[in-house]
Amino acid sequence: MDKKTTGIVAYLTWIGLIIALVAGDKEGASFHLNQALVIFLFALVNVVLGFIPFIGWILAMVWGLFIFVCWLIGFIGALKDEEKEVPLIGGIRILKY
Question: Which of 10, 46, 48, 52 to pair with 60, CA 20 to 30 A apart?
Fold first, then answer.
């Protein structure tokens, strides 16, 4: 896969992220691979918040909306082939690039 396709596939699901990491252009799309991985990990926090009654449910709704907006910004950035960090969590580096 080329750089743009790898970036787009990375945002689709966690399976897409794994496919992009294994079969994609890791060097060219490393920015989007990192962003998608960070968004996925923060989405897991949302799942944990959902198990806490009342306050956790409210926090999970707000957090879920924030994660969706981050995903949308990242996905649109991958479609346009731009390297624009997502708000607040975009500065986290898990993968080297």
Answer: 10
What is the pLDDT at residue 85?
A: 94
- The whole-angstrom separation of Cα 75 and Cα 7 is 8
What does the buried/exposed string (b/e) look like for 58-91 if buried means 16 or more CB atoms within 10 Å of the residue's CB?
eebeebeebbeebbebbbebbeeeeeebbeeebe
Which pTM value belongs to this model? 0.90
